[in-house]
Amino acid sequence: MTASLPPLRAARDDDSEPLAALIAASFAEYPDCHFDWSEFPELRRPASHFAAKGGRLWIADTPGGGIAGSLGIFPVPEQNAAELAKVYVSPAWRGAGLAQVLFAEALRFAEGGNHAEMILWSDARFTRGHRFYEKNGFVRWPGQRYLGDISFSWEYHFRKRLTGQPA
What's the count of helices (H) and strands (E) in the chain, helices before strands? Predict the structure, then answer.
């Protein structure tokens, strides 16, 4: 993608359908990875969901309609951490720097909340995403968790220590 990056904005609850379409398209890139609305009730009102958790969800719109990328974050006080979620970028926008722009917003949120770490869980199949996380300082922790979803998903746990934050 050679065009300038789409601007970020706060998610709205009416982003439900286009956000689900972005996630479903991302899942479809991987074998046996299926999207089912019943497993994502938070997508019915995505902005409200993140706000209720004290978090944020950012959206980058495509010029022609739809969503080019998303990234959400919310505090996990018991771990003194902020957790990333709904990190997706459309294939047309990968490699253009959009994921970095989204991640920079999440980093500002986490550092502004004086969290010691950023954490995330990612499907074991999403190796492209894992490379992105590791490039940005995340370390994969031992162990996995099983979701028991229609895709029989296993997830890896990643953590990133935030510079200058207490443990």
Answer: 4, 7
Q: What is the mean pLDDT of residues 7-20?
A: 97
Q: How far is CA 105 from the centre of its chain?
A: 12
What distances in angstroms separate CA 130 from CA 10, 122, 126, 134, 160, one per listed residue? 25, 8, 6, 6, 13
CA distances from 64 to 1, 17, 61, 87, 97 (A): 14, 15, 8, 21, 19
Instruction: Give SS3 for 108.
Output: helix
pTM as predicted:
0.93
Size of the chain in residues: 167
3-state secondary structure (DSSP) of residue 75? strand
- Give the pLDDT of residue 167: 55
Q: What is the pLDDT of residue 64?
A: 83
